[in-house]
């Protein structure tokens, strides 16, 4: 595509000379701008992918792909419904459960929490819970004992074996009015699932204890349905709704987290557009440096033309000169971005230790570690965009150089 003569001339124009120092400085800043723009874009896209992947995996690890909630507040004879749902093709597991808001009272202080009650077998088969126990054992999850998150335990200064009093939202009616219904349980398990929302506000209880506490004798108020794959969940939603009938509502995990997922998508797109401007500014710098180079090399271009160089030769020389800056910046930027994203958690810990600050507070970002998922599709897209902008920036200056009239350029020499 490029002849040895064209490559030689492009390389000579790229080398810094004392008389062309300003042009070289602009070219250097163009290279750095494209390199940093590409690297930043890859890092941000990887972190956004990591956020989504980690949050979705934790949401689905603690919640079902589909959830069935009774409109009346109780699902009686729920085992027959569980049997029907398990026979649907694509359903992996079905778990009856009870969910309810409670008020926690410990040593005179009170706070709200969400109780989720499941059977001991279902609790043990949730890997995100069973593999995240930091205090206690799975055997401690039994009647009159509960599992709480590590942040809730730290906030209330609780440990395994300590008592915790729960107050139900609906009290007992007495001649003297409504009296809050409360019961004291023992903390048997403390877990850390790596997500602040669940570590700080969730309590797991075994199903029989919750049925007594919420006064749902032989009943539940929700059923969790897990599909073999997240994509299958949307396909089986209609079948689940048909099996449930009209007495309960069926919610897809995407429906339950729609606002959250949309916010992540919008934020990712906005960040992509904003950071693309860095590459665009660097491309404009290439245009500036190339225009100045063409003006500075007007006499050289005229001499080349009189010696037999064609307009095509001159066009290719300056396209190659400008494109080399963009290509080099893109390659180095992609390598820097991939290396940074691959070690971003180590870099975060190093910066936190260096500055003695909390750069990634889990109560703000919901995760205890900074995740990054490198998507080769995103990287290829960023590289292609950077190359297109970089090469496109050279076309006009190169075209002006190729259209330069040798007679006019040498008439004043």
Write a structural description.
With 413 residues, the chain is α+β, with helices and mostly antiparallel strands. It folds into two domains: 4-57 and 260-410, no CATH class; 72-245, no CATH class. It has 17 helices and 14 strands. The strands form three sheets. It has a six-stranded mixed beta barrel. It has a two-stranded antiparallel sheet with strand order 2-12. The longest helix is centred in the first third of the chain and has 42 residues, at 21-62.
Main sheet: strands, sense, barrel: 6 strands, mixed, barrel
In whole angstroms, how far apart are the ends?
33 Å
Q: Write down the oligomeric state.
A: single chain
**Low-pLDDT stretches:** none
Count the beta strands: 14
Question: Number of helical segments?
Answer: 17
| Mean pLDDT metric | 81
Cα Rg: 32 Å
Give the SSE layout:
Blueprint: H1 4-14, H2 21-62, E1 66-70, E2 75-76, H3 78-86, E3 91-106, E4 109-118, H4 120-124, H5 127-130, E5 133-136, E6 145-149, H6 150-156, E7 163-167, E8 172-174, E9 177-179, E10 182-191, H7 196-201, E11 202-206, H8 207-213, E12 219-220, E13 222-227, H9 230-244, E14 248-252, H10 253-256, H11 258-296, H12 298-306, H13 311-342, H14 344-355, H15 362-365, H16 376-402, H17 406-410
Parallel strand pairs: 4-11, 6-10
Antiparallel strand pairs: 1-13, 1-14, 2-12, 3-4, 3-7, 3-13, 5-10, 6-11, 7-10, 8-9
Helix pairs in contact: 1-13, 2-11, 2-13, 2-16, 11-13, 11-16, 13-16
């Amino acid at each position: 595509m490029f002849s040895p003569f064209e490559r030689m001339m492009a390389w000579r124009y790229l080398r810094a000379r004392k008389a062309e120092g300003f042009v070289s400085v602009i070219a250097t800043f163009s290279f750095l701008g494209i390199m940093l723009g590409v690297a930043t874009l890859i890092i941000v896209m990887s972190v956004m992918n990591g956020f989504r992947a980690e949050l979705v995996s934790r949401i689905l690890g603690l919640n079902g792909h589909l959830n069935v909630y009774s409109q009346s507040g109780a699902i009686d004879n729920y085992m027959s419904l569980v049997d029907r749902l398990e026979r649907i093709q694509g359903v992996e597991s079905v778990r009856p459960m009870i969910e309810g808001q409670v008020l926690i009272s410990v040593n005179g202080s009170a706070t709200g929490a969400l109780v989720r009650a499941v059977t001991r077998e279902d609790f043990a088969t949730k890997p995100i819970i069973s593999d995240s126990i930091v205090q206690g054992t799975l055997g401690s999850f039994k009647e009159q004992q509960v599992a709480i998150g590590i942040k809730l335990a730290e906030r209330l200064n609780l440990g395994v074996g300590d008592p915790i009093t729960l107050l139900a939202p609906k009290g007992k009616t007495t001649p003297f009015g409504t009296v809050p219904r409360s019961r004291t349980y023992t903390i048997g398990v403390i877990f850390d699932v790596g997500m602040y929302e669940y570590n700080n506000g969730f309590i797991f209880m075994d199903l029989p204890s919750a049925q007594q506490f919420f006064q749902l004798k032989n009943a539940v108020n929700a059923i969790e349905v897990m599909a073999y794959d997240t994509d299958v969940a949307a396909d089986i939603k209609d079948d689940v709704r048909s099996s449930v009938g009209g007495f309960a509502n069926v919610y897809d995990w995407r429906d339950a987290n729609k606002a959250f997922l949309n916010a992540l998508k919008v934020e990712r797109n906005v960040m992509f557009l904003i950071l693309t401007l860095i590459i665009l500014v660097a491309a404009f710098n290439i245009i500036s440096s190339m225009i100045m180079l063409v003006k500075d090399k007007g006499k050289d271009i005229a001499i080349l033309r009189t010696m037999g160089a064609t307009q095509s030769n001159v066009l290719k020389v300056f396209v190659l000169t400008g494109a080399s800056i963009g290509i080099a910046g893109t390659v180095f930027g992609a390598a820097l971005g991939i290396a940074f994203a691959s070690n971003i958690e180590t870099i975060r810990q190093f910066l936190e230790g260096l500055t003695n600050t909390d750069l990634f507070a889990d109560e703000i970002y919901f995760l205890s570690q900074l995740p990054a998922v490198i998507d080769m599709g995103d990287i290829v897209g960023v590289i292609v965009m950077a190359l297109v902008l970089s090469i496109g920036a050279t076309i006009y200056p190169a075209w002006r150089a190729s259209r330069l009239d040798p007679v006019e350029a040498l008439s004043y020499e």
